Amino acid sequence: MGYTYRDHFLPKDCRPLPPKVSPEEKAAWEKRLEAAKEAIDTRIRRRRWWFRFVRWLLKLQERRRERGLLA
């Protein structure tokens, strides 16, 4: 698995584990990792939606300006 955009935002407690760790600790770490990745994906998705919306508004404004509907 390669490095992805969201890996940059992982909290410190989700960074790679040392080689010898108990199975319970490893399971807890994997659970934290999945939760963190899900939260990051949600944030990225929301931001993407917002930027798409703002771009659409700017295009709309530009079109209205071209038609002379906006000063």
Topology record:
Elements: H1 23-66
Q: What report would you give on this structure?
A:
With 71 residues, this protein is an all-alpha fold. The chain has a domain at 20-66. Helices cover 62% and strands 0% of the residues. The protein has one helix spanning 23-66. The termini are far apart. The model has no long low-confidence stretch (mean pLDDT 79).
Largest sheet: none
- Radius of gyration, in angstroms, nearest whole number: 21 Å
Q: What is the string of SSEs from the N terminus onward?
A: H
The global form is: rod-shaped
N- to C-terminal distance: 52 Å
Helicity level = 55-70%
Provide key terms for this protein.
71 residues; mainly alpha; single chain; 1 helix; 0% strand
Quick take:
It is built from 1 helix and no strands. It is an all-alpha fold and 71 residues long.
